[in-house]
Specification:
alpha/beta; Rossmann fold
């Protein structure tokens, strides 16, 4: 995963709808390709489907990224896809607590995501990933290039992200938080006695 070779595998898994703003990611990929130069092969795999897939595919083609961006459609092998990636990108303009971010972090991937909705609750900026403004393809591209070019940064973010998911978002932690929120203190003590 952390071979600083000439091929960079990047992924996103999302519903292809306007609020997920995959169009900004496609524009960002164009900037990434220009920034890295011809010696690199940059690939983006987009897993997911939705109403605007035809428009996104057309945008990809119109920007000359037909060989660079692959639309995978709906997939049921997300862990396998994540295992071959070097980073995970989520360009949404609105987001709750994203399960796809948690899945990618659990796989040890550094994250580049927009600073919207629940993303800052999941991703600790500069520690488990990079948070960028929404709808800014140049800033998104710069963050992606930074994660690629600084392999120790990406590796450390991936490790810290995995630890964060295990410590803060495990099922046991979530159950405990629900108990503390909805049960009286003596009821919580009874449950764990």
């Amino acid at each position: 995963m952390w071979d600083l070779g000439l091929t960079i595998e990047t992924q996103t898994h999302t519903r292809l709808s306007p609020e997920k703003d995959v169009a900004t990611l496609i524009h960002a990929v164009r900037h990434v390709v220009e920034m890295l130069g011809p010696q690199y092969t940059f690939r983006l795999e987009i897993a997911g489907d939705g109403a605007i897939r035809p428009q996104l595919e057309a945008l990809s083609q119109s920007l000359g990224l037909g060989e660079t961006i692959q639309f995978l459609g709906e997939r049921n092998d997300i862990p396998r896809l994540l295992a071959r990636a070097s980073m995970f990108v989520l360009p949404s303009i609105t987001e709750g607590v994203s399960l796809t971010l948690l899945e990618a972090m659990a796989q040890g991937l550094p994250i580049v995501a927009t600073r919207v909705g629940g993303n800052p609750e999941v991703v600790v900026d500069e520690q488990t990933g990079l948070l960028v403004p929404a709808e800014c393809p140049q800033v998104l591209a710069a963050a992606m290039v930074r994660v690629h070019q600084d392999s120790s940064l990406g590796r450390d973010m991936g490790l810290l992200g995995r630890q964060r998911v295990e410590q803060q978002f495990s099922i046991h932690k979530m159950i405990r938080q629900y108990e503390l929120q909805y049960l009286l203190p003596e009821q919580v003590d009874e449950v764990h006695a």
